[in-house]
């Protein structure tokens, strides 16, 4: 038998140095018992998250819940783009602002904090959302003050009549956001969610109303944002439960609180929905009516009703064969108001048949 002594120095060189590992706070991750309980159950179309997915998602959400300079710069830039897009009435510019705005990130983080009763995650996300909303309102108001235009565009007015349908859109979008966030393979779909449920444009309209001193404009656009916020948080939290990120016994308290908030928000939204239904009836009546004004016959087209705090506006195009006299214009306004049984401020554009 041949024995070889390699020496102590050689053995010391072969010892591998173990590099320190990054640490992740897992205090609020589901326990092994919780994971086993959920993995033993099957939900159609939903797959339960693994422990690796838990750690990856929670780490990502904790980072996204914190307010950073990058977050604020992107948010302010996207607000400026959205505000200018609203002024020039350009849908494509507004869509670009939706894609750039990072406001969806802390909202999804808030939904997980609500779900897991994680006070630290909730506080950071809520703080980021608060300062983000404040920055958007201040930026949009500043642009409105220094822009020599005070015309309500169709893109602005389209965000002043939120209805219960907007809450449904926010709920579906919140579920889509949570599902996409939990799966890295489809996380790129979040861009589509950002377009589906606009966050910055209604806040920008609210800021413009603040800059113009228009309380009705400020409050109605802000209501649309609150609708989107509540719907996203509620639906995202529920979706995370379905995906197994929290047992229902922990999640039910947070979900119930936000469900109550959703019911409270839905009350004015349902009222707006009834108002929208009535507006559609008015448009149908006016479109199908031919008004006789002494020797002239006119029809209305492109009818739009804008609700204001004092008196609603009815904007439309009047199609006639020749110029109307002052008396005929007065008579037309009177007949329009009688047809809809409502006093409105009538603003028209005349078009003449040749």
TrEMBL record:
Pfam family, one: DUF389
Membrane-traversing stretches: 67-88, 94-116, 128-149, 161-180, 187-212, 218-243, 255-274
Protein's UniProt keywords contain Transmembrane: yes
Keywords for this protein: Membrane, Transmembrane, Transmembrane helix
Biological source species: hydrothermal vent metagenome
Name of protein: Integral membrane protein
InterPro entries membership: DUF389
